[in-house]
Amino acid sequence: MKRLIPLVAAVTLLASGCTTVLKSKEFGNVKVDGSTTPVAAVEIENSVWLLFNFIPVASGSPDHPNSYRCKLFRNTVNLPNNMEVLRAEMASEGVSEVVNLTSHYADEKYLFFLLARRACHTSAVLIQSGAKDKEPAKK
After folding, report:
1. Residue 33 CB: number of other CB atoms within 10 A?
2. Could you tell me which residues are beta bridge partners of residue 103?
3. CA 84 – CA 61 distance, rounded (Å)
């Protein structure tokens, strides 16, 4: 037991929870549905390390994605936090619409179920609508 506590502390510090945003803008001028242009594909992951599968040790900071900041003893892994990060990415790209929005949770267990990691993944394609070029729908 004396060796287990430092091991758990080391793993937690080395792989603490984080909020990560990955973005790709490589589309090669592909159009979506003929009227919208993809701006970026975004993948958001927010993770938490849990002791005994329910005590949060460290989780990501949705306010500071892609940084080494984390929230200690708080669980920030939920869909509303990922959606706030997505809204911030949309604002930074100057878009107001997305397509192919998906979210899911992933759970991993380590050290005989003493340590667990839970992550919420959200992905979407940010689009620039071509609606201003379309003719208004006829009634």
Report:
1. 8
2. 122
3. 12
| Other beta carbons less than 10 A from residue 16's beta carbon | 19
**Position of tokens 């869909």?**
79
DSSP annotation of 108 reads E
pLDDT of residue 9: 60
Weakly modelled stretches of the chain, pLDDT under 50: 132-139
User: Half-sphere exposure of residue 8, counting CA atoms within 13 Å on the CB side?
Assistant: 21
Instruction: Please measure the distance between the N-terminal and C-terminal CA atoms of the chain and give it in whole angstroms.
Output: 74
**Is the distance from CB of 105 to CB of 72 less than 8 angstroms?**
no
Which residues make Cβ contacts (< 8 Å) with residue 128, sequence separation at least 6? 36, 37, 38, 39, 95, 97
Closest to 119 measured CA to CA, from 139, 133, 104:
104
Least Cα distance to 91 among 42, 35, 27 occurs for 42
- Is residue 71 a contact partner of residue 59, using CB atoms and an 8 Å limit? yes
**Residue 122 to residues 34, 35, 52, 113, Cα–Cα distance (Å):** 25, 24, 25, 26
CB 46, CB 76: distance < 8 Å: yes
pLDDT in tens, 129-138: 765 444 444 4
